[in-house]
Amino acid sequence: MHPLDVVKTRFQIQRGKTDPTSYKSLGDSFRTIFRTEGLFGFYKGILPPIMAETPKRAVKFFTFEQYKKLLGHASLSPGLTFAVAGLGSGLTEAVVVNPFEVVKVSLQANRNAFTEQPSTFVQARRIIKTDGLGFRGLNKGFTATLGRHGVFNMVYFGFYFNVKNIIPVNEEPTLEFLRKFGIGLVSGTIASIINIPFDVAKSRIQGPQPEPGEIKYRTCFKTMATVYQEEGFLALYKGLVPKIMRLGPGGAVMLLVYEYAYAWLQENW
Questions:
Q1: Fewest 10 Å CB contacts: which of 1, 20, 24, 128?
Q2: What is the mean pLDDT of residues 206-220?
Q3: Are 248 and 240 in contact (CB under 8 A)?
Q4: What is the sign of the dihedral through the CA atoms of 158, 175, 193 and 249?
Q5: CB 197 within 8 A of CB 256
Q6: What pLDDT, in 10s, does the model give residues 75-107?
Q7: Do residues 8 and 207 touch, judged by C-beta distance below 8 A?
């Protein structure tokens, strides 16, 4: 799935048709990256997500359950409880992953051959040495990451559990699996469509600036406004196709693993 993430980031950081490095289509992006950067060009920035994946997923699902229990004491409808708990889990998750995202995006934006780019740890040290650990360094784009993860998880969990409770359970295990997979697929797709403006803003803030030494993209909503004014409304949806290709089925699989693992633990522990 990582090659789709690289392509998504590349689309999000390119600034309109006047950008000389602009890709014409999804196919063109794959061909160009393969031709100019080699096969490993699709795996740039893969180490930060690998390092963050286990704590990220643990935080996502653990905090979702904790927020859900906490909200059980509030006078919220069950449907709203799932969405608000998802929002809380996404905001918490964003705190954990943002430094990894800063390093990942900076590596993915590098168009040199894979062997010519710095390692993950060299890049992280370079960011810290140049810009520090704060919101201009290893934690830049923090508010955009909060928005991206908060909105995604709110829609993702809210839609999945609400719709799953509406559609009748199927006694046939295979059909029940397909029911959950289908709902999870739609959940991941809708969440991706709704949260992608935050994703575009995050990539612009964390990626290379148009003019070296001059920060054009600084805050989340101001970045969205700038992209809209200069490139149009659809520019806020750049990278949507590879994002859906990755998080549609990926989101479905993740929820299924969570559901079946949670049921097994409840039964055996």
A1: 20
A2: 91
A3: no
A4: positive
A5: no
A6: 888 889 999 999 999 999 999 999 999 999 999
A7: no
Residues in Cβ contact with 201 at an 8 Å cutoff, skipping those fewer than 6 apart: 141, 144, 147, 217, 220, 221, 223, 224, 227
Residue linked to tokens 């590098």:
110
